[in-house]
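fyi for ur records
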Amino acid sequence: MKTTDLIVLVAYLFCVVGLGIWLAKRSKTTEGFMAAGGALPGWAVGLSIFGTFVSSISFLANPGKAFDANWNPFVFGLSLPLAAWVATRYFVPFFRKSGTVSAYTHLEERFGPWARVYAVVCYLLTQMGRVGTILYLVALALAPLTGWSVFTIIIVTGILVTVYTLIGGIEAVIWTDVVQSIVLTLGIFLCLGVIFSGMPEGAGQVFSIASESDKFSLGTFGLSLNEPTFWVILIFGLFINLQNFGIDQSYVQRYATANSEPEAKKSVWLGALLYLPISALLFLVGTGLFAFYTAQPELLPESISKGDKVFPHFIATELPTGITGILIAAVLAAAMSSVDSSLNGSATLTWCDLVKRFSRNEPGEATGMKVLHGATIAFGIIGTSAALAMTRVQSALDAWWKLSSIFSGGILGLFLLGLIVKKAKNAAAATAVAIGVLVIFWMSAPWLPENLRPALHGNLTIVVGTLTIFLVGLLVSRLVSSPKESV
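which gave:
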């Protein structure tokens, strides 16, 4: 790494960590650490939501998928406007009125303590898989740029994010996300500018080469359910995004940080509508890289075959001095803006839904801060360890999608059952979850003989799990309700 690039990177890291330290005085209480006093503007919360969406999973894996194949994964984002409408119409008012910072308190109120604990465990598993994927991808990108090993970069990045999240709480998470969202967006535009200007026959050559190779395809529109068709990815995206806005602590917690309900709704729309065009630009980066190296194959070593590694190679070899530093900072920004929210959300649930909920005596503020700080450190370590395990996967994006489908445990179905089916009781919910978990394990069990596995694409695991829990709960509720009762 050249001196100028190193200066840019170090300056960025100092700004991020310095911002977390500066905001430390506002996170001395549990309420400040978890909800920032409910005093933040909607635009800042919205940029934080956007930054959480554009993690290194999107920043690096999406260009990699576009390079290897086409724009089929972009269909995932097309469901966001509908998911955002549902969130602002139902989810945001529901959680704002609940007055709690935890996304799962209401599950205990509806179905008992087991439902709350079940949802918390599923969330924690999902977030640790997510943190692992993010840290792995950022290390994959930075290794050729710094000369450090992937192992070293994972450790260093994990420590940095854990430190400023630990010091500044949710307010540091949101304001650093604002900075990081700006940096990563700038990085995308700079990268596209270098790609287009570096084409031997001009910018138009990108589109001609890509069109000839069908790189802009959104996938087949067939009705097969065991392939990643347009419809499979769209349905998967809808369920994942409804899960994000409805039951993901990282998002729900942000609703409590906004200074009013209208500002919270504004933040959802801002985050969702910003992600869609930026996501398209990230896929354009991948398509542009395919055209760039197709036109100039001598610039891409034969040893680099995976799409996940092409973008980092381009950053390392083709960007001018200074811009390389900005792109490295953008890659870090994409990672940090998601990891910090996962760590803070996981710590918040550990305090609210586990320690505080099941303590015999009401724990005080001092205990609460110790738990929040200790949990942040613990989940930072666990997430970093998960990243080290991710080094063996073939495609980080595919691995994350499979993990998120499995670890989600169908809790979206449980949430919708409690929200929509007013007559659903504990027995109906417990029966539904038991059957839903069995279905999820059946769909995601690689050890089963092929003839015993469902003929469904892995991305549909969350869809089937959610629908199973909701529909079984609905059916049991109707069977046990009296004839005069309606569900």
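DSSP finds 20 helices and no strands in the chain. thats all i got for now
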